[in-house]
Amino acid sequence: MKNSVETSEEMIRKRIRRNTPSPHRLTPQSSPPRFVSVEELMETAKGVTNMALAHEILMNSAFQVKPYEPEEGSLEKRVKEIMHKAFWDCLESQLNEDPPSYSHAITLVGEIKETLLSFLLPGQSRLRGQIKEALDLSLIQQEAENGALDISKLAQFIIDMMGTFCAPCRDEDIKHLREITDIVPLFKSIFAVLDKMKIDMANFAVSSLRPHLLQQSVEYEQKKFQEFLQKQPNALDFTKKWLQDTSDYVTGGATCTPNSAQLPLTIHNHAYLRLLKWDHDTEAFPETLLMDQGRFLEMQQELEQLALVASVLLIVYNSAGEAISGLPGLMERLKKTIKILLAEMHTRSFKADEAFAAVAEKLCVELRGCLSQHGFSPFPSDRENTLKGQIVAVKSADNPIRKVIDSRIQTYLLGFLESSALRCAPALPGGLTPIGKELEEIAVKLERLVTFNKLVYSLFYHKILQDILNQGKSLDV
């Protein structure tokens, strides 16, 4: 979570450029230089961070608050360990004095009291009263001074309260606390469990609020981006270029189309599909979608693998024909094998030649066994070698079968975006049945991202697309 938010902020910060000429033909002359104070930049960065966090909570259903831990072996971690050890050693030393000193212990009880009170809802006045009464620091201080303090009794009350507030997943932790008899280890463990409970409460709050966040998040992101745009007037340059390039592609340079009323929407939907073919190393991502760049990249990589899976399976089933058609479980076994062997296809260490050779070999072994099991003759060696060659050839982006499958995937996704308002999924094109379930999941995820993005930035998109189309008309005249 932390990394994704930091990445979003960093990407937007990199877009902060003043007096930068526009990279495309639509943008008017550069705005005059505008000097921005450090305070303004810091405020902008803070707004970007908050916007990225709110966006992540809404768009990522698996979003969870996680505790921060310094890296293993880092200076920060060593300093933290030394300070904690010194504190607990000091507490132990005070408790071992004769008579015991409770100043550190009472400070800890005060912190625990505030944490327990923070777990309460506004209407839980009875529990609030119990905590304040049992953990009255002035009374505890008097008992300590008079040698009447029962620290174990306080600890048991604290554990009981924690058991009342904690999630069921913490029951074992509470049980373990009740088994600890030494005061110092007990207080250490109490704080460790309280830290877990804080995270639990935060994640419960996030999950409870998510259904109510949509409208607020749309307005919040609009407001924050507008503020950002006022400080950085050229903060839409890459968005304009993205839509301009898509318009050129869709219209082929022409401005007149049979369905011109739908042209802005058509351009916009095609623009989102282009993000699933993006070169993230060389092309600047549109500013309005920076917070979702990681999600688009993830979908892009999933689609690339699915296109290869569907291409290989189409080749295999066309080659083997009726001999394997309809055999239960075979399609899933072949599909699983391909996925496993191509799992690392987007890593630097991936060797395409070796991987596709392994796919061809494994599938042919599987086919051999399957044909034999069902009473068919195995492929002659020349036919098997031809099949292996066809499978290996799929590694090329220019492979005709791969291009057909990829085109059908794009058609399906475009149809999904266009039919989203009608709440009906488009028919699955031929050859995509083996990956239909995964493809629909990606389409739903894409449609959700696109819908939210349009809600937030529709005003900006409408103006940019109108400028593009109006400029095309004026050039045509």
UniProtKB/TrEMBL annotation:
Domain spans labelled Integrase catalytic: 207-386
Family recorded in the similarity comment: Belongs to the TCP11 family.
Region: Disordered, residue numbers: 1-32
Pfam families reported for this sequence: Tcp11
Organism: Cyprinus carpio
GO biological process: DNA integration; signal transduction
Protein name as annotated: T-complex 11, testis-specific-like 1
